[in-house]
Amino acid sequence: MSPYLYILKTDLLLAFRHPVRIVEPFAFFVLCIFSWTFATSSSNGATVVWVTALLSSVISAPQLFHTEYDEGGIEQHLLSSLPLYGIILAKVFSHWLITQLPFILSIPVWGVFLNVGGLTLFWMSVALLLGTPILSFVSALGAVAVLGIRRGSGLVALVIMPLMLPTLVLGMSIVEATTPEGIKSLLALLAALLVFTILFFPWAIGALLKVQVE
Amino acid sequence: MRSFVGWTLLPQRAVHQLSSPKYFYAVSRIISPWFALGFLVCATYGLISGLLFAPPDYQQGHGFRIIYVHVPAAFLSLIIYVVMASASAVGLIFRVKLAYMLAKSCAPLGASFTLIALVTGSIWGKPMWGTWWVWDARLTSELILLFLYLGYMSLGLSCEDSKKADSLSAWLAIIGVINIPIIHFSVNWWYTLHQGTTLSLTKPAIAPSMLWPLLAMIGAFFCYFMWVLLIRTRTEILTRERQCQWVKGLGIRD
Number of structural domains, chain A? Predict the structure, then answer.
């Protein structure tokens, strides 16, 4: 088995042994959507979903590397002969699988509550599939930046929210776009942003990790 | 040939000397009053001719005069971020302590200029657009810039290990400077209400009698930035190197 798959498997196994790590972000999503629709009578479904995805990403960020940092797992990753790039890719991908994917999969259910359906819901799910990994990478970066800082959860929001804005803007625009061409061009931009993120963010996260343990 | 080699080595040596905090402290003491003088001269000319002698705008009347503060502040807020990120990169690549100190001293100045640009912009926006704030591309970018500055400063402040704080915030500054164009591009998707760029190299959109005071004000703001940056960096050097013999030899009391 490839070592990266092994890291992925370990993280998923840990999450399934402590299901609260999966249930917590999911419950946060659901509660956010309910309270939002209660509070605003004429709510735009896409707004709620994207802001919720952003918030849940920010909230679940600190736990991404925290345990490993405390237990010395990060030093082991740095010492291993594997490229750090791949390790980080596996870690962030497993984090995305645990915190974001359950919600995206269940989105047809929430579409009923939000009055979003049909083609709009389909394009929204595609946009979420492309956009939420970007959010996960950015929050991983924030998580690494505040490792070892007491009460870092407020700080992490301040550090990463500005970097998440492009994703949020593109995601919102996709639902507001009316023509198929408009939607497709925006999706292409979002995909480009995802490629850019996958190329450069693991590298930056790795650099920050090295600073944190040196 | 030897003289040629000597000539190329000389600037290198000067750069190496200047990157030592001790030399920088001595040199900046000589340079900084000149920036103060430049600030005074430019600001006096810019403010007097801009506020009293420049003709009122044919659409905006006297209200346009706020650009003599607004445009330089907005311009500097971006320039300072680039300076900060470049200094951070120099610090990370060449392991120069002084570069980190410069970057750290840039941040509060940049944040202040960003705040000034936002506040003067909204004071201008109220009579011209009829509203203090709109979610327009340029305004949003500027607000995000403010948050980037605040994030940079608070990350540096909350990390107890100062070496770690330097490297971490340097990385954050570099990531931020790569993201600024993306943020600007993405918020441009919205309809923009902001007027077009006033300064352009090819097609000036402003009369010379209004332009010269504006350029003078940009010069004034830049000199002010350099002046205060040097003062802040000197203070930072003294704080960090307070255990060094040369600082103790200066005879400064706490």
Answer: 1
